[in-house]
Design goal:
Elements: H1 6-13, H2 23-33, E1 41-48, E2 60-64, E3 75-78, H3 82-90, E4 94-96, H4 98-105, E5 113-116, H5 121-125, H6 128-131, H7 149-158, E6 160-164, E7 170-177, H8 182-198, E8 209-216, E9 222-223, H9 226-232
Parallel strand pairs: 3-4, 3-5
Antiparallel strand pairs: 1-7, 1-8, 2-6, 8-9
Helix pairs in contact: 3-7
Length: about 230
Amino acid sequence: MPRQGKKYLEARGKVNREAKYSLDEALDLLKETARAKFDETVEVAMRLGVDPKYPDQQVRGSVVLPHGTGKSVRVLVFAKGEKVKEAQDAGADFVGSDDLLAKIQGGWLDFDKAVATPDMMGGVGRIGKLLGPRGLMPNPKVGTVTFDIARAVRDLKGGKVEFRVDKTATLHAGIGKVGFGKEKLRENFLTFFEAIMKAKPSGAKGVYIRTLSLSSTMGPGIRMNFNALLMEK
């Protein structure tokens, strides 16, 4: 049996694997190579010139994309007192304190993002082993531990993307849907790219971005010309 399907092989045939494309060229190819019946997510992959085992070479942060991600995000908020109503008014899907902690300890994890007020982190820390491996642990570095609950919820609902380099110095993120069209994807990409550049750690030496590519969920990777991308900015 073939390792890849016919549609994938046809899409891959449209991409010169030795070439490096400009942003506009890559977005045009992205549309041509997205062959699935559903609206595929547009994904960015970067290999960075950092060594994540050193604290001063970590790359982590978040950015709100101007046109969102195209995904519905279920937001849970750990809060009490007046912050409960603030979270509900902002559109949080689940709000609570000890009741939610107990529910999660019982195995419930039916949400996508979590936010907590600082005074709730003592309790949240006790379930860190459940939340952490799934990327659900609130963190002040990405704005999900805060007393400004309304803003945190609106940002997550509106297209906030968190990013973090893995141990192989690679970073992945979704920046929208193919159906957004070229201009919206272009704006989302440039916003994301600028956030990665601003997140360059003090310990990074030499070339910061080693490789950069775009792809749709089911499509082939499209390598991008880093120098041409800098000229886009």
